[in-house]
Amino acid sequence: MKQSLIVKGLHASHQKIPVLHGVDLTIEPGRVTVIVGPNGCGKSTLLRCMARLHKPVLGSVHLGGEDLWRLRPQQAARRLAMLPQTPQAPEGITVGGLVRYGRHPHQGLLQQWSAADEQAVRAALQATDVLQLADRRLDQLSGGQRQRCWLAMVLAQETPLLLLDEPTSMLDLGHQVDVLNRVQALAAAGRGVVIVLHDLVAAARYADTLVAMRDGRVLATGTPRQIVTPALVRQLYDLEVDVLAAPGDGAPVVVPASARRANRRLTIV
């Protein structure tokens, strides 16, 4: 079921220190929404508020017209799945065992493991190309393989919305592209996907909607071609850049300015 997630007037704090300041955001199904911004700007806190892992001080998060914070945990877990930046797995767990965890929201006292659960797990393993690794231990795999296994786990949850916090961190370029291509395919199949990324070039390449944040506020929202400009990058990162069009599709490519040009700006009084 396709559902929009709507964030309104969201304020959040860490140990009484304000982190988010009145964030408004709409996440559409069938699109990849990428949140970018400097370290400490509130990207992960915003994602955690959407995932019911961090209670906001003010504001609301609605999915399909329902207030997520008023739902029971199991109800919410059937509507959205989150992959944190540094997920932890039990020692010695197999890939198949990990992916089965994604079916926990669908279990209960009167509903035990079923053929539908088994089918969902197999479909998730196939979608991420790790079916052949199902009997392998997770800790025996490469970083790229492990990340695909974690992605399979959240896919097995069968939710209309996926929240991914830095899913490509610590991956080499080839594995980054592989993971982001798979995420893009999930959105094309109808799921809403929200990703936090540090890599602005990758964000501009894969985002349908780009959300630029700084100091707990959204500075700009739109397609990468609409909003990725030297002025926005300077506002986000205090960095002088050129924005070029990629060969083929014209996606914005952010290139740091030459040292001479950047130094000239720094010396202006």
Structure summarized in a few sentences:
The protein is an alpha/beta fold. It contains 10 helices and 12 strands. Helix content is 33%, strand content 26%.
Spans where pLDDT lies below 50 across 5 or more residues: none
Widest sheet, order of strands: 6-7-8-3-9-10
Shape by Cα distribution: globular
Distance between the termini: 56 Å
Percent in strands: 25-35%
Largest sheet: 6 strands, mixed
Q: Compute the average pLDDT.
A: 89
Derived from helix and strand composition plus strand pairing, the structural class reads alpha/beta
Number of helices: 10
* Percentage of residues in helical conformation: 25-40%
Q: What is the N-to-C succession of helices and strands?
A: EEEHEEHEHHHEHEHEEHHEEH
What Rg is obtained from the alpha carbons, in whole angstroms?
20 Å
User: What's the total count of β strands?
Assistant: 12
Structure, described:
This protein is of the alpha/beta class and 269 residues long. It contains ten helices and twelve strands. The strands form three sheets. It has a six-stranded mixed β-sheet with strand order 6-7-8-3-9-10, sandwiched between helices. Helix 4 (115-127) packs antiparallel against helix 5 (143-156). The longest helix has 16 residues, at 173-188. It is globular and about 55 Å long. The model has no long low-confidence stretch (mean pLDDT 89). Its main location: membrane. Residues 5-240 form the ABC transporter domain. Keywords: ATP-binding, Cell membrane, Ion transport, Iron, Iron transport, Membrane, Nucleotide-binding, Transport. It is found in: Cell membrane.
